């Protein structure tokens, strides 16, 4: 591993407008090596199909992907213990010997050859993206291979080996950032990132997820709101199973804009797991692609409103790897590059033919699920009879006072 994440390619100032810096797209074919094997839900095909779709739609026209070296041991140690790093290294050399120690070699996170190097590679990409944002070399950056939010200091979990988000945020703090916000819209609680900064008032973590009463990892309740001087900086919106577009977007509106406005981050890091979709096989929320796309627009706008435009967007979960993830993350790339796609845009014939040939299934014909992605703003009033409103109010009451906000307003 190299001493630091470093450029191994170039980046064109694509997506710049109104005098703002350009946008970095982090990509390397080596990311496809993050592969737990046949039948595992975390299939690298979702990354390949995303980049193919984005390219064929012209989203990546003129973009020179930025490549990074794998993060070295010093960087990884910003979020992981030495014993854990040694365990991952051994598993990458001798996968068959992995026995579940530190969560490596389980059905959840099987060992595979070179897993240490491949996992360090996506961390290096997120770190390099963060460094360039902080230096002003880029305005936004996207790493769809990142967002491994379940990895803990000494434990792999939820298909996540190294926590690239936690390492990238730690690197920003090391470089002098005083306030970094992390917003996680994956269907699962962003437990690993929250744990890394639970007592650090410099980092605000916000997670909108299906309640831990019905979904892994069983955490992320409103009362888990930070410790000591960081009280109020861990913000958890635990939503009932079955929550759909209008209620999810209303919950987002009720919590994310006010806490970001109050915290005033210097950088916004976001995780965009696409497993909140109604057809995802591992969870129970009911979002459409259109609501997911709307959340990307909202986070983009919030980055400009409250973080000086510095926005690092990461991938994450998503296990409907043909119909959902490629379309969702192509929209994410398009929005970050200031090239938003009309949702009614047809998926390109070449991409559809590739999917049909490789998977023997008919892919979606358009970049939309045909849903309006509208919602009733929180400002129109709280409904105590609505389960989602009650969940939202529990969050507001748990954290708003510590942030100097009124939960009733």
TrEMBL record:
Residues 40-334 form the Histone deacetylase domain. GO terms for biological process: acetoin catabolic process; epigenetic regulation of gene expression. Pfam families: Hist_deacetyl (PF00850). The keyword Secreted does not apply. Keywords: Acetoin catabolism. InterPro entries: AcuC, HDACs, His_deacetylse_dom, His_deacetylse_dom_sf, Ureohydrolase_dom_sf. One of its GO terms (molecular function) is histone deacetylase activity. Pathway: Ketone degradation; acetoin degradation. Belongs to the histone deacetylase family. PANTHER family: HISTONE DEACETYLASE HDAC1 (PTHR10625:SF10), HISTONE DEACETYLASE HDAC1-RELATED (PTHR10625). This is Acetoin utilization protein AcuC. It comes from Motilibacter rhizosphaerae.
